[in-house]
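Two proteins follow. First one:
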Amino acid sequence: MQADLHAARVTKGFGKHLAVADLSFSVARGSFFSILGPSGCGKTTLLRMIAGFVAPDSGGIHIGGQSMQGVPPNRRPVNMVFQHLALFPMMSVGENVAYGLTRRGVPKTEIARRVGEMLERVSLSGAQTKRVDQLSGGQKQRVAIARSLVLEPTLLLLDEPLGALDLKLREHMKIELKQLQAAFGTTFVYITHDQSEALVLSDQVAVMNAGRFEQVGTPQQLYYQPRTPFVAGFVGASNRIDGRATAVQGEEVSLSNERGLVLHARAVGAIAVGDALQAFVRPEAATLAREAEALSADQPRYVGQVQSLLFDGANSALLLQEERSRTEFRIALPQTGHFSDLQVGQRVHFGFDPKQAVCFAAAPHAD
């Protein structure tokens, strides 16, 4: 599959700080590619290098098969949507969308045709003469995207465009963005610190940390098959257990923490008995039961006391303290309603399939 974007050993530093470190990757044509990471990891610097606002110290960037060495931002086949959109308040919706075409000297009849078609495709055909301040937040987002896509860029770069929206509108716009990208077939490169946005929207996600990509894969791969402790802890909610390996049998490792909790997990990478480990268990991987006999006898079983009830609709969970070790676990509540009567202080039984827990040899500096 052809790549619309290829970065080869791209590096950028600011003084002693290395913002992007020897990074190489490709983005397939027509895909939705997200760069996910915490603040300060280098994702904005990387996006600005792709756009041409910042020059790499070394390495090269190719867009549409062409080297971008020395090509200024206004000559690159890219457009950018920012978090604060940068729409022109003194212009109508139609004038905002037409702005780039006007600057390029496109004939007026052609501008009118392309703007009309674009607004229809983003479901704003009736808003062409409206002022920007008459629009809702979601409509403004669509105007910003239309203004970029009407120029038919090879890449559309999106710099946390949903960050300024309220939660309900943000959830709605995630669906709209995904549908728009699929409809236009333009390659989207999207940066965010919000894992939900990255997982919902993307064909491929790169998890970035300290200037490097920890892992690149589908949302499902990152969630179920993390390759590093950072990815396991950053993507999705997890219970992290630190301990040492007490037994290794094939891919399954037994570990014990300093409080005496014994846990079984799937090893990622080489692990030997005695190694310091970090294990991660998803809240939804655990099975809850009123009685121990209701849990699989082939899996480790635990007894926990309810410390707190976290009601959040479909994402509701319990905070439990395992009785023997006093280790705390966050366990997702099943959506059957069978445990809706649980109260703080009650005892429940829980267990999980070791294949759904992962563990890594801890780095010497790991906290």
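Second one, unrelated to the first:
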Amino acid sequence: MVFARKDLFTLNYYKKQPYTASSNGTRIRLKKESDEAGDYLELITWPEPFCFEKTPEEQKTAYRFEYSEEGICAVIEWLNENLN
């Protein structure tokens, strides 16, 4: 699957719930998170077949992106480079 900007939602969507998808045997979860440095987008990847809650933590990998339109574009670029 090739990801395009139209495949992901606006920033406000991620304030309320995560976005999940899968591509080529990898599942993804994108969600807004916050820490002392501010807001950011957290992308977590893990191998199929299990859902996020049923997958052991050691099989999940997290990545941080800026919480902005540029961050969304960076997520799309990362997904296309790493999942295709």
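SUMMARY FIELD: Strands lie at 19-23, 26-35, 38-47, 61-66. The chain has two helices and four strands.
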